[in-house]
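Title: [Solved] Pyruvate dehydrogenase 3D structure

Original question kept below for reference.
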Amino acid sequence: MAKQNVAEQFVDILVHAGVQRLYGVVGDSLNPVVDAIRRNSAIDWVPVRHEETAAFAAGAEAQITGRLAACAGSCGPGNLHLINGLYDAHRSMAPVLALASHIPSSEIGLGYFQETHPDQLFRECSHYCELISNPQQLPRLLQTAVQQAIGRSGVSVVALPGDIAARPAPEKPVGHALVTSRPTVRPGDTEVDALARMIDEADRVTLFCGSGTAGAHHEVMQLAERVKAPVGHALRGKEWIQYDNPYDVGMSGLLGYGAAYEATHECDLLILLGTDFPYNAFLPDDVRIAQVDIRPENLGRRSKLDLAVWGDVRETLRCLTPRVRLKSDRRFLDKMLRKHTEALEGVIKAYTRKVDKHVPIHPEYVASVLDEIAADDAVFTVDTGMCNVWAARYLTPNGRRRIIGSFSHGSMANALPQAIGAQFACPGRQVVSMSGDGGFTMLMGDFLTLRQHDLPVKIVLFDNSSLGMVELEMLVAGLPSYGTGNLNPDFAAMARAAGVYGVRVEKPKQLAGALRDAFAHDGPALVDVVTDPNALSIPPKISAEMVTGFALSASKIVLDGGVGRMVQMARSNLRNVPRP
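Solution (posted by the thread starter after getting help):
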């Protein structure tokens, strides 16, 4: 048996850790690793057109599967391109291992061609970032990187010089027992009992949920029923908590809707469940607050806490709910449910009158039709900007759909590359990229990646020829819009020129048929929908402070658009409110 080199051992360890593919762009310093993948049937090399796409794709795959995913960049500029997607993966708590290939080890520190210092550059967007300078480091160092990424839910970066990758590996065979899943963590009885006492002492309890409630829907509903609590959510909590929720009062934040804001401010105990909601201007400062989070560093960094509970939300609630006294007073819950329904009823009128005849097409109408036509288990990837608004307000979660975006990092151009990773992870599942024209064109080169790998991703392009969210921010701040316009081609014609199914939609009556045909197409497809750049009504009186830093009033008076099928959900929940 031929002796392994370092690159082959590196790849074997990745396979042992459950990695199925490595996204990246080939380059000389990466050649030994790419060649090792070529000769290993258990893992695939996925070539993309830009390394940023590789990192976004790996992050999306990790979020969909919950398993470690990987990406790679060659030395210098190659691995530098990874950094934005790695920031996003790290802030999304996606377990990703990045290989930052490096210049020859003998030249490090001497100003060599393409020299950077990846072991320093990636520290801020990773839990672990180290340089392999000797083959003897490899097994233990890579094992540590894998376990940091998985155990702490984030990014690990390994910098590997190309010459080291080509050297013989250590004699000792690889046989490490790797950690490939996370444990559940419950708090101690002291903290659980303290939280139970706070709930028993409170008359009005509100639950506010984030992405940490993934897998805890049943437990949250049990607690809400026991203490008669309205349940609000942040954007990243929407897919996990909004469906089958008779206590739903909507979302808080700049994109918020419904009565979530009122429910968090009019209670006398607010319980933050698995959320690192960053906009503290939307959080109250005059009510008691308890927070439950698996990450201790999240506890109390957004608001002053009366109780911090370190633990997994599901396990914590399993311990907590039986210890809490049953409440019978529904007055606060019912009041919030009524407010929620009234708030949703009040904003739908402007977006239900003749929208099927409005040209250019209302983007709200596009999102609403998309929500109805897409599969019940579709994966939506959502561009940052106005697509976030439409996803937040029109996509209906059901416990099977997934909604992935750059919700914590806020990067443009994320939707298409995330769709690539999601489709590789779920080859038989419908993946829909809700792309804005600004985000799509930023990494448009990887549209060709769909064609190269025949990935059946469906791109629904909200084409308003502008950077809509930036334009809104300028107008709110009292500035004339400047530099926000895009001169766009016919994207559908461009898609067809690349050998991809493409259709352009300019009239509302064409939309449903175009989406159905694209979704039925066996392969990638692009639906270029020309939408109204003036879809949002700007109120006549607003101060710059209202939007700076996503401040308090912005969500209530700026983004007062429609809410899709959520109004039907609210009406259904309202039927459960006892009549006086």
